[in-house]
Amino acid sequence: MPRWLIFFMIISAFEFLQIFLILTIRWVVTNRTKVMWLIYTFILIFSHLLLYLGINRLYPWSFTVFVMYLTLLWMYFLSSVVVIVLYKVSGSKYPLLFKSLLPIGYFALLGYAWYNAHYPAVRNYNIQLNKPLASPIKILVAADLHLDYMVGNRAIRQLVALNQQLKPDLILLPGDIINDDASVYFKYQMEDDLKQLSAPLGVYASLGNHEFYGLLEENLQAIAKANITLLRDQAVVIEDRFILVGREDQTNPYRKSLRQILKNYNTSLPIIVMDHRPYLDEATKANIDIQVSGHTHNGQMFPMNYIVGSMYELAYGYKQKDNSHFFTTSGWGFWGSPFRLGSQREVFLITVTGKN
């Protein structure tokens, strides 16, 4: 999708939501005094100031604040539409009741979206490979941590506690561990909490697009200080049982193909791949056994889950193609605003057995 079209859609949605907000306020507050007109004027000036700061990224926080405001407007729109439709269906009776429901519905939706973004689900999968495997492997997948000032030490400790409860054999973090800039990560010493993640077969990661958006070398140091093994277009053989591959994100123009990475390995062993973005064709052709991905956040905010669903063959969940098993998780952190609607903070727990 061209950038100009994305920009046009964002601006159009923003202006529409602003008008909707003012119209619903006028419906609730029938007073037409100068004070109300001053409030409308303030809303328009304030919101367009946020728009200007956000689009031009004049401050490190300005784009995030704009996205947050846009998200709040969107959830207000969703909750208000439900109330207004119910009001019309009722024959426009009890206007005071339905006007009271506007803020109640809005804050209820905010609370639900906040809960989804901060309290995790565990998605369990059981698969059997078409290759021998001496004993089952239990894999914990947590993508898209997006560690920064909104997803910080508390979120890491929550993941560590969940890992201790689930006791996986292997932990995989397929990209976007750092949200652009590692300065907040280092300021709050997040590596001390992140290094508490442990599993018998190790903790491994690959890079996502957001590690490349910031200072890459600092982001690499941040991951290394947490005692996480980062695979950059590299493969390792773990206990002679399976091959683990970590791919560079497609942001890197020099990313290798799977065949290049695996050319010196015994591919009769099961092959597990971490690839941040859920593209399936190359992995299917290379006959890999498992690929774990993230990136999409399952849209994070309704109806983006349907939009990303049209962009990727597997925007979320599990799919088998031939002998290859693919997983795309909605991730642990969030981007832009601390809300999720139509998706939830989660980990995948994948139990893998062989054909023997």
From TrEMBL:
Identify the SUPFAM superfamilies for this entry. Metallo-dependent phosphatases
**Superkingdom of this protein's organism:** Bacteria
Q: Which UniProt keywords apply?
A: Membrane, Transmembrane, Transmembrane helix
Q: Please verify whether the record's keywords include Membrane.
A: yes
- InterPro entries given in the database record: Calcineurin-like_PHP, Metallo-depent_PP-like, Metallophosphoesterase_sf
A Pfam family name for this chain? Metallophos
Q: Name one GO molecular function term.
A: hydrolase activity
Q: Which residues cross the membrane?
A: 6-28, 35-55, 61-87, 96-115
Which PANTHER family does the entry mention?
A: TRANSMEMBRANE PROTEIN WITH METALLOPHOSPHOESTERASE DOMAIN, TRANSMEMBRANE PROTEIN WITH METALLOPHOSPHOESTERASE DOMAIN-RELATED
Q: Which protein, by its recorded name, is this?
A: Calcineurin-like phosphoesterase domain-containing protein
**The species this protein was found in:** Psittacicella gerlachiana
